[in-house]
């Protein structure tokens, strides 16, 4: 189970377990036992406009090689291969920054006023130095003041709720106060081809007449398709086992019963053509901030661009909308006061994702001024037909105003914890779910984004067994 413990405060979640329960087992009926798969992919910039041939490609570069005799012997048989996500990407054994003894989780939650929080911040003197350099008269600007006031309201709830969940995790053995170091290839992060750049390239494809073009491309073992299909329509894996697709020579695992659209925000029409209405929509926007602008590592969208996302068109009546928000109060206010009203979504709750180590410590001091060990989720429901809303809410619990999702975070940037299990008691089974700005896939979900396959890259996984 991805939910290890469930308490009144929230859930202790095992993110790694959730990924590995998605069913990354490949059932391959081809002659070669090495996991041959069709290359339905773009293989180079020059041949982007061409159709892919039926090319046999090994599904794992790390597996043993096989001779032609092996292939002859296994012809007609089904080879099974199981992949698991690499454990080292969840090896958070120590806090990124250690809190002073009086601020550590195991010491209990001291009651502190806003003034005391300011004076006890471990980054306080660091900020004083910055202020001196800026020659700023005011100690905190308005944004920092708002953030401090928000933190003073939620810190006790976060501290106490996390403490109770950590205690349960320690009792059950899921968390360990003394943890052994994993023998990990920590620097062996795969160099993934530029999916965002690939989406940009796709805009140069010749325009396709929508009446002549399929809205869905279904992954099948023994069929090939023009490269353009993976970039101009929703791709589905309708089978009960995972499949491998190849893009730009890179291999990606697609879990069973999942669908995705690889495109950027300017090419959302294929998702609208998919003709599905979603009961749950999770959004992880690429928020605009100064560090992103300076680094140029990640694309970002302005508030105006985020408002243009056609959530009302994609949402079913009474749809539950969940938006990940950074700890900037500007973004939180925008979601609650502008974005949700613009989409006719009523704000219901603020939940917090709390990041801990394998020993149950906050990954950052709770009162750090620089970064917090938690992120915010804003939950709301699409407003519409009252009778339809009542019908859809029958048999499910109302959304609680405050909940914690406590987990060991993935060390890969923006790999958020799964919400499937924690939302299960608040939605009906077998509903349609959509994730926008996704970077990975989930069974039973439709995912969209210009990096939607990023964490599905086969090098993030280990081939566990072959049969």
Describe the structure.
The protein is globular. Strand 1 (3-7) and strand 2 form a beta hairpin. The strands form four sheets. It has a twelve-stranded mixed sheet with strand order 1-2-16-14-15-13-12-17-18-11-8-7. The protein has a three-stranded antiparallel sheet with strand order 3-6-19. By secondary structure, the protein is of the alpha/beta class. The protein is built from 14 helices and 19 strands. 37% of the residues are buried. The protein has helices spanning 15-20, 68-73, 114-120, 124-134, 142-172, 195-202, 229-232, 269-273, 290-295, 303-307, 311-314, 329-342, 386-393, 420-423, and strands at 3-7, 10-13, 25-28, 37-38, 56-57, 79-85, 216-218, 234-237, 243-247, 250-254, 258-262, 278-283, 315-325, 345-355, 374-382, 404-407, 433-436, 445-449, 461-466. The protein has a single domain, classed as Rossmann fold, CATH 3.40.50. It is 25% helix and 22% strand.
């Amino acid at each position: 189970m991805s939910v290890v413990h469930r308490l009144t405060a929230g859930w202790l979640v095992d993110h790694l377990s959730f990924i590995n329960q998605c069913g990354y087992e490949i059932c391959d009926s081809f002659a070669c036992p090495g996991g041959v798969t069709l290359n339905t992919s773009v293989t180079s910039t020059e041949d982007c406009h061409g159709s892919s041939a039926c090319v046999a490609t090994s599904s794992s570069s790390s597996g043993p090689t096989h001779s032609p005799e092996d292939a002859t012997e296994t012809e007609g048989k089904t080879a099974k291969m199981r992949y698991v996500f690499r454990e080292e990407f969840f090896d958070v054994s120590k806090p990124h920054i250690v809190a002073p003894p009086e601020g550590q989780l195991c010491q209990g939650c001291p009651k502190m006023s806003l003034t005391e929080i300011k004076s006890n911040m471990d980054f306080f003197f660091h900020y004083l130095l910055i202020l001196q350099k800026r020659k700023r008269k005011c100690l905190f600007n308005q944004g920092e003041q708002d953030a401090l006031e928000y933190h003073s309201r939620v810190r006790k709830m976060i501290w106490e709720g996390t403490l109770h969940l950590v205690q349960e995790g320690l009792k059950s053995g899921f968390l360990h106060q003394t943890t052994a170091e994993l023998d990990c290839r920590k620097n062996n992060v795969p160099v993934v081809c530029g999916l965002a750049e690939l989406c940009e390239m796709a805009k140069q494809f010749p325009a396709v007449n929508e009446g002549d073009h399929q809205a869905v491309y279904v992954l099948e073992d023994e069929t090939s398709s023009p490269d353009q299909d993976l970039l101009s329509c929703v791709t589905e894996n309708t089978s009960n086992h995972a499949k491998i697709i190849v893009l730009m020579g890179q291999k990606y695992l697609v879990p069973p019963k999942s669908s995705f659209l690889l495109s950027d925000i300017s090419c959302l029409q294929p998702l609208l053509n998919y003709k599905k209405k979603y009961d749950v929509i999770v959004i992880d926007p690429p928020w605009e901030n100064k560090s992103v602008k300076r680094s140029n590592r990640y694309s970002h969208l302005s508030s105006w661009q985020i408002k243009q996302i056609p959530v009302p068109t994609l949402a079913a009546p009474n749809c539950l909308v969940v938006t990940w928000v950074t700890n900037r109060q500007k973004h939180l206010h925008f979601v609650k006061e502008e974005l949700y009203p613009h989409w006719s979504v009523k704000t219901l709750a603020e939940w917090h994702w709390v990041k801990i180590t394998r020993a149950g410590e906050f990954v950052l001091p709770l009162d750090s001024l620089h970064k917090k060990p938690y992120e915010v989720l804003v939950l709301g429901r699409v407003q519409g037909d009252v009778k339809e809303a009542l019908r859809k809410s029958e048999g499910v619990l109302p959304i609680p105003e405050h909940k914690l999702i406590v987990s060991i975070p993935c060390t890969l940037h923006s790999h958020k914890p799964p919400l499937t299990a924690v939302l299960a008691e608040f939605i009906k089974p077998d509903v349609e779910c959509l994730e926008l700005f996704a970077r990975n896939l989930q069974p039973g979900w439709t995912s969209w984004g210009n990096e939607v396959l990023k964490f599905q890259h086969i090098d993030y996984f280990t081939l566990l067994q072959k049969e």
